[in-house]
């Protein structure tokens, strides 16, 4: 080898060294969340399903035939699908006009209304269940409708939750659509309705499809809502998983039902991912956010009427009624008795801890859950925001993003019960995680991590890659680029993600119902126990505790919403 060739070889190795180091760092950043997902999600879920299909260590698929030939299974599947489809359609029908009013038009107080509309999404399912029960019960303002404990009551609560998903997802895209396209159609003679259906709707379709898929996902897996509001004999696939595991210990039936639910949810996630990709591609072609036009009753009376009716009748009324009911006794008299009783353990010692003790538990657990979700979700968002040039790299990024959306589509009951049967001594360690309380914040972090990813990732992807290239050309190392370019831009999104993760962790019910010990019960668990026991005193305490939890989560979200930016992501 000649001296010149040796020099060229050394130069080639020197040029490849930074690339190799960067690849190693990105690989390490991806490994940490993947290990977390494997240990605390994939392993418990797989173990639970596998245990249902194994008999004495041998594969036994006879349970599939048994479960799928039972009429009850198909009835539950029908209710689950109907619940998902009807809830989605109603949310879209009400949410699209809301997206127009709140994102396409301007009026005094619009920012405040946007924030208020977001609050229902992060309210604990138990709180919403109590609020709707107080509204629809025989003694409530709408008791004459006689729909308490019915399919209609459940759908109303699901739309209450998911209205903001449609409004924010569709509205965020709508405010970036150039209005001149519809105006051009009108100038060519198209009526307003024709311009809407032929110009605006096709442009919005990626956002509508994506929002619909996510809403279907939430409606089909609404465990807490169905448990609180569903009447006698009403159930879904998810509640049946809970019944079979907790009451009958029938893991085989629960496993088959879990697989059935996974198939339904996987389809919804695939539709959501496909629509989200189309939406992101479309957004790159749109102009910057368009200044909305002033809202006028003469031109916008129809969407305005629908939005006013929805926000006041469906969103505000249940919460206002919950507030007044918490300050009344069984005879309708104004009183503070329900709140003073929160220092007790209810009638006949219904509770193992007081409500205030449970609130303390919730705050501590939510803190650790949020911290974990921010670390794991932040790493995922940072890695997934990279722009690899090779097909393999692009597929790897897409796969990583999709993997961390899976917890949204798997029953929290499945995750919680999977924790119990797998994490007694994980990886052979001489410690039983089920007895030291660490599993509750971990389970809540598994639920909150996808929210962090979806909030932060679009912001990181919106950063101009030329800024990175320029900094690297000037000799800035990777950590310097991250701290001086990425961090200042992503900080606001991380603040919003912190609020969302904390609020969601405070209200998590499904997995926590399995994992919380009696002395570390969280506030949602305590509320559910109170409403599950007869007695006016317990019910009054449940109302007061629900109001406290609702005010806490609403306050957190209103503060967090101040950090939202135009590029901040949504769930879809």
Overview of this protein structure:
- With 572 residues, the protein is mainly alpha-helical.
- The protein has two domains: 23-49 and 330-572, MetI-like fold (Orthogonal Bundle); 61-322, Orthogonal Bundle (MetI-like fold).
- The chain is 74% helix and 1% strand.
- The chain has 23 helices and four strands.
- The strands form two sheets. A two-stranded antiparallel ribbon has the order 1-2.
- Strand 1 (54-55) and strand 2 (58-59) form a beta hairpin.
- It is globular, with a radius of gyration of 25 Å.
Q: Helices and strands in order, then pairings?
A:
Elements: H1 3-53, E1 54-55, E2 58-59, H2 62-68, H3 71-104, E3 105-106, H4 110-122, H5 125-136, H6 151-174, H7 180-187, H8 192-220, H9 223-229, H10 237-247, H11 251-283, E4 293-294, H12 297-326, H13 337-340, H14 355-384, H15 391-403, H16 406-409, H17 412-422, H18 439-461, H19 465-473, H20 478-507, H21 510-515, H22 523-532, H23 536-561
Parallel strand pairs: 3-4
Antiparallel strand pairs: 1-2
Helix pairs in contact: 1-11, 1-14, 1-17, 2-11, 3-6, 3-8, 3-12, 4-6, 4-23, 5-9, 5-12, 5-22, 5-23, 6-8, 7-8, 8-11, 10-11, 12-23, 14-15, 14-18, 14-20, 14-22, 18-20, 20-23, 22-23
């Amino acid at each position: 080898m000649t001296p010149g060739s040796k020099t060229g070889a050394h130069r080639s190795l020197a040029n490849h060294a930074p690339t190799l180091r960067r690849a190693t760092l990105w690989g390490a950043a991806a490994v940490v969340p993947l290990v977390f997902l494997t240990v605390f999600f994939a392993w418990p879920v797989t173990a639970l399903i596998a245990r249902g299909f194994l008999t004495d260590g041998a594969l036994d698929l006879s349970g599939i035939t048994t479960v799928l030939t039972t009429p009850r299974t198909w009835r539950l599947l029908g209710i689950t699908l109907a619940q998902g489809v009807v809830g989605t359609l109603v949310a879209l029908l009400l949410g699209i006009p809301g997206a127009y009013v709140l994102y396409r038009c301007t009026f005094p107080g619009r920012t405040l209304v946007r924030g208020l509309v977001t609050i229902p999404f992060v309210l604990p399912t138990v709180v919403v269940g109590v609020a709707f029960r107080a509204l629809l019960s025989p003694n409530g303002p709408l008791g004459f409708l006689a729909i308490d404990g019915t399919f209609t009551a459940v759908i109303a609560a699901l739309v209450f939750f998911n209205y903001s998903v449609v409004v924010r997802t569709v509205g965020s895209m709508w405010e970036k659509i150039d209005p001149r396209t519809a105006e051009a159609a009108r100038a060519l003679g198209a009526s307003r309705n024709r311009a809407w259906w032929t110009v605006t709707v096709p442009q919005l379709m990626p956002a509508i499809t994506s929002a619909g898929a996510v809403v279907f996902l939430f409606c089909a897996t609404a465990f807490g809502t169905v448990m609180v509001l569903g009447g006698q004999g009403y159930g879904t696939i998810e509640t049946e998983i809970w019944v079979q595991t907790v009451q009958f210990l029938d893991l085989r039936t629960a496993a088959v039902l879990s697989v059935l639910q996974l198939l339904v949810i996987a389809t919804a996630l695939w539709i959501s991912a496909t629509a989200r990709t189309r939406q992101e591609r479309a957004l790159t072609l749109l102009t910057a956010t368009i200044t909305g036009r002033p809202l006028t009753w003469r031109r916008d009376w129809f969407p305005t009427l629908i939005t006013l009716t929805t926000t006041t009748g469906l969103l505000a009324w249940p919460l206002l009624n919950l507030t007044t009911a918490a300050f009344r006794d069984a005879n309708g008299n104004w009183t503070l008795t329900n709140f003073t009783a929160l220092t007790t353990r209810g009638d006949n010692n219904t509770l193992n801890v007081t409500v205030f003790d449970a609130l303390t538990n919730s705050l501590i657990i939510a803190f650790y859950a949020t911290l974990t979700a921010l670390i794991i979700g932040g790493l995922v968002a940072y890695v997934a925001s990279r722009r690899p040039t090779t097909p393999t790299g692009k597929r790897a990024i897409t796969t990583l993003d999709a993997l961390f959306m899976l917890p949204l589509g798997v029953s929290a009951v499945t995750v919680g019960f999977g924790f119990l049967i797998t994490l007694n001594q994980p990886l052979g360690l001489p410690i039983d995680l089920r007895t030291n309380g660490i599993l509750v914040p971990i389970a809540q972090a598994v639920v909150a991590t996808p929210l962090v990813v979806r909030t932060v990732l679009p912001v990181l992807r919106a950063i101009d890659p030329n800024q990175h290239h320029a900094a690297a050309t000037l000799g800035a190392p990777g950590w310097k680029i991250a701290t001086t370019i990425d961090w200042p831009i992503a900080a606001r999104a991380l603040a919003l993600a912190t609020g969302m993760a904390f609020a969601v962790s405070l209200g998590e019910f499904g997995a926590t119902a399995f994992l919380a010990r009696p002395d570390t019960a969280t506030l949602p668990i305590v509320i559910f126990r109170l409403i599950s026991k007869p007695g006016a005193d317990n019910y009054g305490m449940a109302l007061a505790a629900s109001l406290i939890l609702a005010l806490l989560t609403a306050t957190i979200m209103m503060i967090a919403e101040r950090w939202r930016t135009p590029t901040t992501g949504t769930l879809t």
